[in-house]
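REVIEWER CHECKLIST
Item 1: Sequence provided? yes
Item 2: Single chain? yes
Item 3: Sequence as submitted:
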Amino acid sequence: MAKDTNDKNQKPTNSKAVKSESKVMEILKKEYKFENWLLAILSPILILYGVYILLGRFGIIDLTAVLGKSGIGVIDFFFNTTLKRVLTGSFLVLIGTLVLVYLLIPYIKPSVSEMKKVSWPSGKALATNSSRVFTFLVFLMLVFYLYSAVLNPLFRLIYGN
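Item 4: Structure as written out by the authors:
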């Protein structure tokens, strides 16, 4: 019986390791808003750099003459041939695009579920409403044309043109 009470009072030996691991994972999993803003700013820049590398031009500067001739072996490796330059530029464009998609997914998911809830008009109702809008726009165009035709001679008379 005394042995049972000792078993109940003993704590697991790895509880500190589990708690510290969960604290680390909690920090890593926490989402910080500034990171998303930073990614949103940097990913279009990454795409732009990738496009410049793909094209081989930056404004009037010919990048093909510059890239691959820096004297730094690691950097030159990615740019010393046309194929490597194109692959590097394509990789940068791909990564930048994937980051933008990653950032937009939280905004797209609720939109998709809301779009499923929308009751869409039938084809006939859509055609009827579209024709009404188009007719109204043509009417407004005619009204403003008539205003212009009537008021232009008056303004020429006033301003003497």
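Item 5: Key structural point noted by reviewer: The chain has seven helices and two strands.
Item 6: Recommendation: ____
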